[in-house]
Design goal:
CATH architecture of the largest domain: 2-Layer Sandwich
Helix content: 55-70%
Radius of gyration: 43 Å
Order of helices and strands: HEEHHHEHEEHEEHEE
Strand content: 5-15%
Distance between the termini: 72 Å
CATH topology of the largest domain: Heat Shock Protein 90
Number of strands: 9
Structural class: alpha+beta
Number of domains: 3
Number of helices: 7
CATH class of the largest domain: Alpha Beta
């Protein structure tokens, strides 16, 4: 029972109120006692005193002398002080009982928000982080605590959702090349008349799909190292990253009759080069997959409101629904890398046929709390 914070608060409230009340009543008693001792009846002139007997007859009493007056005064003061002491004790007892009740009620009111926070925390599970406290009332410490708890739940909910999507994308994208390899190997191995050329063709399919899986695994490892804190952040120039990536993917783009252009000014910030290179490569690879023949893919970088950014823009069909952008292991890896850097991935596609801009936001020490929601003022080839 004594481990309950409400009981402890009630006792503390009661002790505080009882102690203050006891000091006040004690001071009143001492002041009354001191005042009575300082009073004298010598200055009161009593010419005569009438006393009514039990029979109703009035009898005149002679004037009291000094000794008699002092005796009367002493008896009177003693009676007054005794009554004052009795009243004080009764008042202290009542004050004690009232303080216990008030302490219990007040501590219950104070701790009610804490109880709500406890109940929400008890009901929350990893599979359902949708509950929120949403505490009403004045903007005091308890409400700020509840709001902080709600913000933490928002971040946890987003993290769990991202992890579930990441696992789903990983399973889906790794299963596809494995299925292709298995079906082609079974097809040629079950054919007793399979030729050398057919075996060579199957070997080429296996090689291409194993290379694809190796690239996926490299991306997963890059994201895992970054989240585990085993990757070292260094000073990076984003303009050098996009120039290097444009040179790397230039021949691949030329084979598809797509042109890669770069723009932007030097932007230096702290980041893990291997991870950011992997994230940018995934975005460029996605852009080349949807870029129409004869179109242009643009790579750009810059700084906005203390946030460094890299953008990959294409002239493909666009993404009509933002939910569609979460499909695919490549973008899931990019999101994981951005979260580990404290950044974000934003997709801008106004309508079908208008192309897509994938923007990586990376914080600097001067960055605002959240990356800008608007698309950077840049176009392909600007």
């Amino acid at each position: 029972m004594w481990q309950s914070i409400r009981v402890r608060l009630s006792v503390q409230y009661s002790a505080l109120v009882f102690g203050i009340g006891g000091v006040i009543l004690g001071a009143v008693y001492l002041a009354l006692r001191s005042w009575l001792k300082s009073q004298t009846m010598m200055g009161i002139v009593i010419q005569h005193t009438w006393v009514q007997l039990s029979s109703g007859e009035l009898v005149r009493m002679p004037l009291m002398n000094e000794v008699e007056m002092e005796a009367v005064q002493t008896v009177y003061a003693s009676q007054v002080l005794n009554k004052a002491a009795q009243f004080t004790l009764v008042a202290l007892l009542g004050l004690f009982l009232v303080s216990i009740v008030v302490g219990w009620v007040m501590s219950g009111r104070v701790l009610k928000p804490v109880g709500e926070i406890t109940n929400v925390a008890r009901e929350i599970q990893a599979s359902d982080l949708s509950r929120r406290i949403a505490l009403d009332g004045p903007d005091d410490e308890l409400r700020r605590l509840a709001n902080t708890f709600d913000d933490m739940l928002d971040r946890l909910d987003a993290a769990f959702t991202s992890q579930r999507q990441f696992l789903a994308d990983t399973s889906h994208d790794l299963r596809t090349p494995l299925a292709v390899i298995q079906s082609n190997v079974e097809l040629v191995s079950d054919d007793p008349s399979a030729t050398i050329d057919e075996w060579r063709e199957t070997g080429g399919i296996v090689r291409r799909n194993t290379d694809k899986m190796a690239a996926m695994i490299d991306g997963l490892l890059a994201a895992a190292r970054l989240q585990a804190g085993k990757a070292q952040a260094v000073a990076l120039d984003l303009s050098e990253l996009i120039e290097a990536k444009a040179a790397e993917y230039g021949p691949i783009a030329a084979e598809k009759d797509v042109r890669i252009v770069t723009s932007g000014s030097p932007v230096t910030l702290q980041g893990v080069e291997v991870s950011l290179d992997r994230a940018l490569a995934n975005l460029v690879d996605n852009a080349l997959k949807v870029a129409p023949v004869g179109s242009t893919v643009g790579l750009s970088c810059g700084m906005t409101q203390g946030w460094g950014w890299m953008a990959v823009m294409d002239e493909g069909p666009g993404i009509p629904d933002e939910a569609d952008q979460q499909i695919g292991l490549g973008l899931s890896i990019v999101r994981q890398i951005m979260q580990a850097h404290g950044g974000a991935l934003r997709t801008f596609s106004s309508e079908e046929g208008a192309g897509t801009a994938m923007v990586i936001w990376l914080p600097t020490p001067e960055a605002d709390s959240q990356p800008p929601e608007s698309r950077p003022e840049v176009t392909i080839g600007s």
